[in-house]
Amino acid sequence: MMVPNKKWIINGVFILAVLVLLFTPLGFKVKVFASQLLSTSAAMVKEGVQVPLDSYQWKLTDLENRSFDFEDQKGKVILVNFWATWCPPCVAEMPSMQDLYNDYGDKVTFMFVTSDDRQKVVNFLKRKNLDLPVYYPASETPKTLRSKLLPTTYIIDKEGKIVVAETGAADWNSSKTRALIDGLLSK
Q: How far apart, in whole angstroms, are the C-alpha atoms of residue 130 and residue 43?
């Protein structure tokens, strides 16, 4: 009978660890934790590079299937976050988004845009104890807000310029982000 050598054992343990990370709920939790650990404050887009929204023509619906017209948000500070329940970095940044929403929800328009199944989203929000305004696109997303990466978050100033365009998990409740929002609100 052949006894496995040390190299075989180490390789087997490594392969098992990779499989656990990739294909189990534990792996998802590890990815969420790692994303939270590595997240930093969102960075403001340099002033000369800030792009104005190409259009406010965007219809959405909320979790109760009520209409939401993005056009009505013109002239306000807006935070748009594209996310999904299956995305570890999205899940990682949600607690900081909730904290920011708790403090700025009456001053800033928050929009958490997803294409996930509604019941899955409702269950996710309940399980994570989140109370965020979630929307589903009902028309084409404006070109300047399209991204293939999740999460992607934009902060739009009152003049319609995208002042933050962040992909990946970020700490949205940082003092730097709060100072940025406070500055946008005081203009």
A: 25
Can you say how many angstroms the Cα of residue 160 is from the centroid of all Cα atoms in its chain?
Answer: 20
Let me know: does 51 contact 146? Beta carbons within 8 Å: no
Report pLDDT digits (tens) over 10-55: 776 767 666 666 666 666 666 666 666 556 667 666 676 778 899 9
Residues 149, 154, 155, CA angle at the centre, nearest 5°? 170
CB 73 within 8 A of CB 109: yes
Q: Which of 162, 152, 155 is nearest to 83 (CA)?
A: 152
Q: Using an 8 Å Cβ cutoff, are 98 and 165 in contact?
A: no
Give the chain's length: 187
Report residue 58 CA to chain centroid gap. 19
What's the half-sphere exposure (Cβ side, CA atoms, 13 Å) at 61?
9
